[in-house]
């Protein structure tokens, strides 16, 4: 059974992801799905930007005292996201242009600062 503070963290993370999705939709992206799990990884948001399928990683920190949330996207994390995206494309029979974006969120609700890094990294 999860501890109450762990449950709060999960609920907070889900709320941040919903806010991030709405924020991106306000900027013209179309939501496709959320929390797509694949062996070795999970894609927070799958969205469409015109003809491009966008895999979005949402990272949140209350403050940047210990570093910016975008800095937590390590090479290992990138590889996991790429693997999960390939699995998503294969499972859904898709062949289209793709992009990996990062939404770095800092602060606490309702006062959130969002930095959108479109094309944060590429699949090699």
TrEMBL record:
<comment type="similarity">
    <text>Belongs to the UPF0102 family.</text>
</comment>
<dbReference type="InterPro" id="IPR011856">
    <property type="entry name" value="tRNA_endonuc-like_dom_sf"/>
</dbReference>
<dbReference type="InterPro" id="IPR011335">
    <property type="entry name" value="Restrct_endonuc-II-like"/>
</dbReference>
<dbReference type="Pfam" id="PF02021">
    <property type="entry name" value="UPF0102"/>
</dbReference>
<protein>
    <recommendedName>
        <fullName>UPF0102 protein C6W88_12315</fullName>
    </recommendedName>
</protein>
<dbReference type="InterPro" id="IPR003509">
    <property type="entry name" value="UPF0102_YraN-like"/>
</dbReference>
């Amino acid at each position: 059974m999860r501890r109450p503070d762990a449950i709060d963290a999960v609920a907070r993370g889900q709320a941040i992801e919903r806010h991030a999705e709405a924020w991106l939709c306000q900027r013209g992206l179309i939501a496709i799905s959320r929390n797509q799990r694949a062996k070795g990884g999970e894609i927070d948001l799958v969205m469409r930007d015109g003809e491009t399928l966008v895999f979005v990683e949402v990272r949140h920190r209350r403050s940047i005292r210990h570093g910016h949330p975008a800095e937590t996207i390590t090479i290992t994390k990138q590889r996991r996201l790429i693997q999960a995206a390939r699995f998503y494309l294969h499972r859904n029979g898709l062949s289209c242009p793709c992009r990996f974006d990062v939404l770095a969120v800092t602060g606490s609700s309702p006062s959130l600062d969002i930095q959108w890094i479109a094309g944060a990294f590429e699949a090699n």
